[in-house]
Amino acid sequence: MRYHYFLVFILVSSALAANQHKAEIEDNEFAEFEEFDEDDELVIKEEETTKLNTESEASSPEQSFDEEVEIEEDSEEFEHFQDEEEFEGLDQEVPLVKGKPSEKPDLKITKVPLHLRRNWESYYLEFLMFAGLIVYFINFGAGRNKNQKLAMAWFNSHRQILENNFALVGDDGKKEIENPGMQKESEHIYTLWCSGRACVEGMLVELKFLKRQDLVNVMANMFRPASDQIRIKVTMNADSMDNFVFCIANKKTASRLLKEMSDLSTYCPEKKSVDRLGIPDNFVMMSELGEAASAMLDSKLIAVLQKYSECIDFIHFSDQFSGAKIQE
């Protein structure tokens, strides 16, 4: 019987406890969710702490590695400052005092050469050049005037003879003669053309003087003397001239003419002596025909050769082309 009461008491107490717990659950409907939230927060906090620990552990070696790299770069960047040869005297103390220095610097004044000073002696080269130009122009005017006077003197002295043998003396090549007399080709060359004679087409007289207007040529003539030349070229009519080649010339000139003149080298290759003809021995004769010498060298020509042997260079008579030899 007692056991029955004890069981009933246990059942009643358990029923009351169950009802009380049910009422608490009904009063807090979100209690289950709160329990889950608390568990989640604990789990999340634990995960965050683990992540932070892992990140701090991972970042710490990277930061140390970067610091080591930066330190190495800084040491390499300023490594050239340790070169002693590049910065000589850098260790010496330099006073950083503004204003005037305490000691005066030792200034050394360089001596200026004499030719750089502004005085008349420094322009001696310019004076020499200016004096040379003055002398050149004075010589130019004097030489030109002298050649002109020589040409006019020759023309005036031979004008009467030329007018007696030619109808026209001093043709200037124009239809109406404006300037009769000598024609000036250059400062040292003058020409005279005469025409109007039987059996003769014309005669050209060329006066070739020294280049007296050229100072350099004047100085060269002091070491190698030369002389003025007169060249007279007579053009005969073709039907009035015999066909032969004849030349009498100075020995030195004869050798040059044989090399340069085409007709002499072709028809008169040999030089002949003129001793038996009464001509000075400084001349030689070149003739195509033996009879041409007796026909050309009459008494008047021989007398002229004897009298003016030093002035006559050569006498050339030819019916062929007497120009320069054609080079093969």
UniProtKB/TrEMBL annotation:
Assigned keywords, A-Z: Membrane, Signal, Transmembrane, Transmembrane helix
Family annotation (PANTHER family): ADIPOCYTE-SPECIFIC PROTEIN 4-RELATED, PAT COMPLEX SUBUNIT CCDC47
Biased composition (Polar residues): 51-61
Native species: Caerostris darwini
Endpoints of the signal sequence: 1-17
GO cellular component terms attached to this protein's record: rough endoplasmic reticulum membrane
Region spans: Disordered: 47-68
Subcellular location: Rough endoplasmic reticulum membrane
One function term, GO molecular function aspect: calcium ion binding
Gene name of this polypeptide: ccdc47
Stated family: Belongs to the CCDC47 family.
One Pfam entry name: CCDC47
Record's bilayer topology term: Single-pass type I membrane protein
Residues passing through the membrane, by range: 123-142
Protein name in UniProt: PAT complex subunit CCDC47
Any one Gene Ontology BP term: endoplasmic reticulum calcium ion homeostasis
